[in-house]
Amino acid sequence: MTTVKTITKKTFNGKDSYTIELSDGKTGYLNEKGSSGGLKAGDPVEYTLEVKQNKQGKDYNLLSVNLAVGQSNAPAPSPPQSPKIGTSVLPGSIASGVIVEYKVQASLRAMEFVINAYIADKLQWDQIKPNHKELTGYLTDAVDEICQG
């Protein structure tokens, strides 16, 4: 795994092409058909390199570049600010928005867990919704217990 150092757009005869430089020193033309879209400097990526020959017989690198497994082009959400330990949070206070964010994150994580169980053939399709609902209930109850002292 490496990161994108630079991507440069070039136009030749009305057609766009991109050259890419990776932080491990590899450079070449970006194979757009075999690569993730929206790549930018700093993205963690995995790649394959093919050495090709142009019409003049000179070698060039063609890089198929994809985001590293588990990565996304979406900006990472900033973590919610946690209330101070030992303090109680009153409904309607600024910190109650933090509790709502914790509960949203808990629900998303529960869905991810349940979907992974389905993918691993541990659950049937019709079991996803009730299992998500049950797991979300447990997690949001835990958030309430933790945040209410």
Task: Describe the overall structure.
- By secondary structure, this protein is of the alpha+beta class.
- The chain is 31% helix and 28% strand.
- A hairpin with a 4-residue loop joins strand 2 (15-22) and strand 3 (27-30).
- Helix 1 (94-119) runs antiparallel to helix 2.
- The two termini are 43 Å apart.
- The mean pLDDT is 80.
Task: Spell out the blueprint of helices and strands.
Blueprint: E1 2-12, E2 15-22, E3 27-30, E4 44-53, E5 59-67, H1 94-119, H2 128-147
Parallel strand pairs: 3-5
Antiparallel strand pairs: 1-2, 1-4, 2-3, 4-5
Number of beta-strand segments: 5
Largest sheet: 5 strands, mixed, barrel
Radius of gyration (CA) equals 23 Å
Taken as a percent bin, the fraction of beta residues is: 25-35%
Kindly report the spatial arrangement of strands forming the biggest sheet.
Answer: 1-2-3-5-4
Any low-confidence stretches, pLDDT <50, length ≥5? none
The pLDDT mean sits at 80
- Strand-pairing-aware structural class: alpha+beta
**Assembly category:** single chain
Q: Approximately how much helix is present in the residues?
A: 25-40%
Give the CA-based shape: elongated
Number of domains: 2
H and E string: EEEEEHH
Calculate the terminal CA-CA distance, rounded to whole Å.
Answer: 43 Å
Put simply, the count of helices is 2
Task: Sum this structure up briefly.
This protein has about 150 residues and is α+β, with helices and mostly antiparallel strands.
List the defining traits of the structure above.
149 residues, 28% strand, elongated
